[in-house]
Design a protein that fits this description.
This protein has 10 helices and no strands. It is mostly helical.
């Protein structure tokens, strides 16, 4: 019989790895370290991060990092689809469009901003990176709701929830309460 997993150890591992990752990225003076962290999914895979962080509450540090990496992966692997959603949502969410910063919303710009969002989490103000990601979610949510298909409506709802969580995480980070 295999041994069961220890939920307390998993919780500790999720929070500790998220904190170490963010601290390491924010302290790095070597741009190659930052780029390795930006492309962490390319090195270890999205499923590894999902195993580690996706079950943590959205309004925690591992929950916030999971959402940032998840968004980056979606933006990179479906950049044309994301660009369509984003383009469709711009007219409904102009202020969020300005904050998200995808101009023009072409696939290559979506991929560039995906990396910029992650890079900003490590080299800039983490709260601003979270707010930019939330703004991106608002725009793509509005666009998804405009596009045909029932899966688009479900995506729009999930993106709105993610935007709310990322915005709350930014407030928690500024209050030194994001753990």
């Amino acid at each position: 019989m295999g041994e069961g997993s220890d939920p307390i150890a998993q919780l500790h591992a999720a929070h500790e790895t998220a904190a170490v990752l963010l601290r390491t990225g924010r302290a790095a003076e070597d741009p190659s370290v930052t780029e390795r962290l930006v492309d962490l999914v390319g090195e270890i895979g999205l499923s590894t991060l999902a195993d580690l962080w996706s079950s943590r509450p959205a309004r925690t540090l591992p929950g916030a990092l999971w959402r940032l990496y998840f968004l980056r992966e979606w933006m990179r692997t479906d950049s044309a689809g994301v660009a369509r959603c984003y383009s469709a949502g711009v007219r409904f969410t102009e202020p969020n469009h300005v904050v998200a910063g995808i101009e023009p919303p072409r696939p290559e710009d979506v991929r560039r901003v995906a990396d910029d969002l992650m890079r900003g989490a490590f080299t800039g103000d983490f709260a601003v990176a979270l707010e930019r990601a939330a703004a991106f979610c608002h725009v793509t949510s509005a666009g998804s709701a405009e596009l045909p298909g029932t899966e688009q409506v479900a995506r729009a709802a999930k993106l709105q929830e993610m935007a709310a969580d990322l915005t709350a995480c930014a407030r928690l980070w500024r209050a030194d309460a994001l753990r």
